[in-house]
Amino acid sequence: MAFGAILFLFELYADFSGYSDMAVGFARLLGFKITKNFAFPLFAQNIAEYWRKWHISLTSWLTEYVFTPLVIQFRDYGKRGLIAAIILNFILIGAWHGPRFTFVLFGLLHGLYYIPLIVKDKLNKKKK
Fold this sequence. Notes:
Strand content: under 5%
Shape: globular
Low-confidence stretches: none
Largest sheet: none
Order of helices and strands: HHHHHH
């Protein structure tokens, strides 16, 4: 079952990345330049790097219009505020994907995966 889940992850990546690559290529044929939307996220070292590389357009939009205002709102709470902002942001990402509880749970889990990075102060640290 775990092997099937891993294969499904690769299928999802291939579908999303392939669709995005076709959209970028077609846009270039028409003279438009569109940002790359996937940057090899399956090779990420941690969850933060994964989300910087996966669905870049959605992640950057949510960072600018949802996450940043939440961080500003919760800045007086330190790491707890940052954790709350990340979890709320990812719950919204899950809800954006669909109205089912499983998508919201997906968002909650991905938000929770950030907690060890925040606690260890490794959220924005790049590997040298």
